[in-house]
Amino acid sequence: MKFPNEKEAISKLTEFILRAGASLFKASRYLYALSAQSFYTCDTKDFFKVVLNNIQNVDGLSAFHIPVNDSTCGILGSDDSMKLFKLIVFSFAVRLPALCNVRCNGEYMSEHQMRSVYSAIMGKGITNIDNAIPESFSGNMAAVRKKKAIPPYNSEWFKAYLFINYPELADINNRNLFFIGAVDMLFILFYLCLEKEIARLITSLCGSQNDTKSLG
Question: How many whole angstroms separate alpha carbon 9 and alpha carbon 15?
Fold first, then answer.
């Protein structure tokens, strides 16, 4: 795909994925804080609207006045929980071959261009910690090249990582059941928005508002 400024396009796509990862991580922390005491009084539909209406910035969640501190976030508020942020970003990055499979002006991004975005993201310190993400960039690239569909995005890896590293989240109680159920829905809906938004971004970066089709 021909970009008027390819370096800028790579940079903006990299920033987009990093911000989206930060937003999903932040929304997950808010959900866990919400599960501590407020899920009976907070309208979760409104909560989801705030997150999904702008996946690049979820600062609007502050309007719910959900206390996000050590007592409400607990394990998801620790320094160690930043590993989850890196894993969320990695889970998006390995899907770049599908996410970027967008036609603009009759062209698609080349494998080299997609790998450049992937490498730039990895250059920000993003890694597959403990091999928590079962997918790989190369594997998804091969599937897209063969026009094979990749599995739908979900939160299974996220839950598995939490259960292994934070066993208390596997306890059966109201808080954990609310959080895990909400996370399931959040991850799926968030990714659907991610697909649409990155397609718009690629279209904008290649300099056309027409002839756009996502095959991801």
Answer: 10
Helices assigned H by DSSP within 38-57: 44-53
**Whole-angstrom distance, CA of residue 70 vs CA of residue 100:** 38
Euclidean distance between CA atoms 214 and 100, whole angstroms: 8
Q: How big is the chain by its Cα radius of gyration, in Å?
A: 18
Query: Two tokens at 91?
Result: 């889970």
Q: Is the pTM of this model over 0.85?
A: yes
What size, in residues, is the chain? 216
Q: Confidence band (pLDDT; 50, 70, 90) for 81?
A: confident
pLDDT of residue 161: 94
Q: How many CB atoms lie within 10 A of CB 167?
A: 9
Distance of alpha carbon 30 from alpha carbon 170, whole angstroms: 19
As to burial, measured by CB atoms within 10 angstroms (0-12 exposed, 13-18 middle, 19+ buried), residue 33 is buried
